[in-house]
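User: Quick sanity check before I run a bigger batch. Here is a single chain. Can you write out its predicted 3D structure?
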Amino acid sequence: MKRTILLLAFLAGVFQLSAQTNFTALKISPAYPRQSGKVNFEYNKSYSPLIKQAGVEAVVYLFAKNGSYKLTEPALVKKGNLYSGNIALDTNTVAIAFSFSYGEEKDGNGSKGYIVPVYTDKNVPVKEYYAATSNLNNGMGEYLLGMSTDAERSLSILEEGIKQYPELKSEPSFFSTYLNVINRAKKKEAVPIIYAELAAFEAKGNLSENAYNVLIQAYARDKKKEKVDSLVAARNAAFPNGDWVKNEAGAAFSKEKDPAKKLELFNAYLAKYPDANKDLVDNYRSQLANAYAKAKNFTAYNEWNNKITKKSIAASNNNSLGWNMAEADDNVPEAKKMSAAATAYAKNEMLKPTDKKPDFYTKKQWDKQRRSTYAMYGDTYAYILYKEGNYKEGFTYAKDAATINDLKDAELNERYALLAEKVLPPAESKKLIEKFVKEGVATSKVKESLKTLYTAEKKSDAGFDAYLAALEATAKVKKRQEIAKTMISDAAPKFSLKDFDGKTVSLDDLKGKIVIVDFWATWCGPCIASMPGMNKALAKYKDNENVKFLFVDTWENVDNKLENAKDFMAKKNYPFHVLMDTEDKVVTDFKVSGIPTKFIIDKEGKVRFKAVGFNGNEDELVEELSTMIELAGS
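Assistant: Done. Predicted structure follows.
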């Protein structure tokens, strides 16, 4: 991508005072949308990547002054390849972002997105537009609009906003965003720039409480304890009854583990702040409930969980706790009650929702979210019923859960298969499990179940390995074809990081090897869940000198990141070669938007694959990585 050319075109279309936002595939009117006004749009599929698709779906995101957004799904009028519609803006709308897609394919407008300012009566973008658009270019737009993350472009947008509205740098929320983007865009050069900006910001004087907080957070990130202490003292003196008092009371409540003391702090908090935010109070009730659960006081747990006004939170607590207790064989009857309540709630919400659709979901996304929640909770309940031997009832819930996910989730298929073995005729359950194996959505336990059925049928396990390999071959060919389609060829960012022993490891030193770079953090649940699978992959290639695994610890927010990571690995006892991205520079260079994210780099230093997240199937993870390594080396 020719970034300079694209950026100049982008700025010319958005920021010049006399110019309208111009896109090839999208036209809007009026040229300068106003708050509380109406916007008409016309999308020409002929000029977009969707030209070969059967149709077009449109979602429009309306960004508000406070940085939040809501979406609307305008009705489209089709005339050939032209799709037209309109949307209404409210008094808070500061930016409009259009998303055009069909199925899984999105038109990201050449990675820049379709982003339109809302204008003042002088035909310049409203002040809050710049931060909203910067955030879209700095990661949010990748998920919403299919556009690329570009910290440099994000910074250019903020700087253009400052030229138009110099007072923006005095606004705490904008200034905080500005510092974060400088850090990502400027990388090694960012530190002196940020300190100069902090000094200038503080020197203006007459600081608000939020302004103090921005300064405190910025210096705290760099462990400038004396400066932080000084600013905290100044803030507290200037605002003796400020929000910091309330926040400290909340922090003390959250930190307390003893449920009785926690209850005292909760009551004191409500007495002092009777008008506290309802969502925050629900969060505290949830914390109380879970504190009692850890103390094995399930009567008190149920009492406080039932007091939560947002029933989705209470149901989530019941599901999580029910699963954890059942998995540990800890009071399974109580776990069953919790899981049953969560599952009943989720099923009712799926069929007849009592809550209003959230502003940030499309109707399709909301329907999918409710179905997925029921599947997750139903799977927990099926697991508990399986453990207590209630196979027939468990099978119903397991089948629902697996079917909702189109029989593509290996973990949900596991429950379905194990219960099918118990309630269906052997031939029928064997056929079902064979299907899972052929499609590559079977766990190790499912394959063990297939072996049991095979042995019972053949009166021996002779020949099972060849039979299983034949079934798996179909899945491997299909999976290989799917993975091959995702192959890329981008230059990998160069890096040099220290490991636990202080030894510097650089990508240049590993040229000639296939390198797997896994970005993770000690607080990241999916990262931790993926580690057993990564350990299996590591063991598979332990004797292959041409394959190197690197586990990059990043995005940590603790005082001693090295000791934190060392302690974590010591407890987990994984033999991983961990590198420390203490300044979060390498993760930024790789443009990672979420962890775990794995990159497979070939012998020439090019990224050939990028894998984001973890689906819970260890065997599938190993197989996918193996295929990527093989393809990267071919």
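The domain at 490-633 is CATH 3.40.30.10 (Glutaredoxin).

User: Great, the batch can go ahead then.
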